[in-house]
Write the structure tokens for this entry.
Amino acid sequence: MSNAQLYLVIGIPSVLALVGIATNITLYVFMAGRLDRRLERFEDKFDDRFKGLEKKVEAIETRLHDDMQSILGRDREMDRRVMRLEEGKAN
């Protein structure tokens, strides 16, 4: 076996291993970037849904606050009427 054959027998598998490693690294980087983009889209959709939910909750809170104020106003009016009736009976 000559020196050239020995170099080829040792060198070709080494070069192929290095090419394989480089290919795997490239694939990993590509897939990681793709996964990052997908996660960003998912997070954006998730944030949009929560924003919509927050708007709905705020609308419900506003409506409940208005209803509560209305009820309290009616309660105050009824209290005033009862007080007038009691004052009228006391006299």
Q: What stands out?
A: The chain has a mean pLDDT of 91. The first helix runs from residue 3 to 90. Helices lie at 3-90.
